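Quick board copy: two proteins, each given as sequence then tokens.
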Amino acid sequence: MSSVAQNLSDAPDWTVDPIIQMERDVLPVLHQVPLWCVAQALNIARPEIGPVLQCAEDAFRMRAAQLLSDHGIAVGIEDQTRFRETANLLRETHKRLLDVDSSPDGVELYTFLQGRFVLQVEATLDRFREIFLIRVLKSHIVQAEQAARAVGELNEIGRQFYYVALNASIEAARMGAGGRGFSIIGDEIRKMSKTAQQTAQTLQKLMVEEQDKA
């Protein structure tokens, strides 16, 4: 297997979408907080929000880093800090909600939940999505470049076959009747050259079609 083909086979597997995994763990808290606020304001039974907050905190504190690592993505200090601060915010929010009945300022808590809390969680989740989308785009670009090199290698093989066939034909002509074996070999190599070049052209066409679909 050529080095290009080997690199293509080592491409990351994106069948398990890490963005979907993070959204599954984080989005429920963004849906539940407004409901909790409404229930609190109306003095009716509030939805159970503790486990949802804990799940979202774990997502940013542990699973985000693991998903990034699984896909070979190195995150800078700024993003590491962002994930950690958002996880801390979720923990702080959980504590505030547990203490809500003893809190004299419900308006301040409501403002916090609808403002800083929601905005920061949404922004951090958006940043997580952005990191993976950039990684996917880079992966596709690399694979396209590798495919282009593979087509180039195949074209080069076809050209080399052609020159070998040409030399065989020249040698067959020089030897006359005794060069019949060279002539047969030359014909077969010429067929191989044609097949290799046709395959390269087909691959090139398929690559262009895929780029047009993207």
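And the next:
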Amino acid sequence: MTLLLTLLAVLTLAALVLGRAQIGRGSNAAVANGATLLAVAVLVGLVATVLAADTL
């Protein structure tokens, strides 16, 4: 379970960084892609939080 939570944390951070980089590019398509990546990061973070709470 620890490995899964670590993987989810890494995926969340990667999605946050990539999403922010996409938004920084400025075009409408890049901003839309960045917003999607940020939404994915939030959802993966929520899943990780639920899994972590379930293991306690």
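Board note added afterward: Helices lie at 2-25, 28-55.
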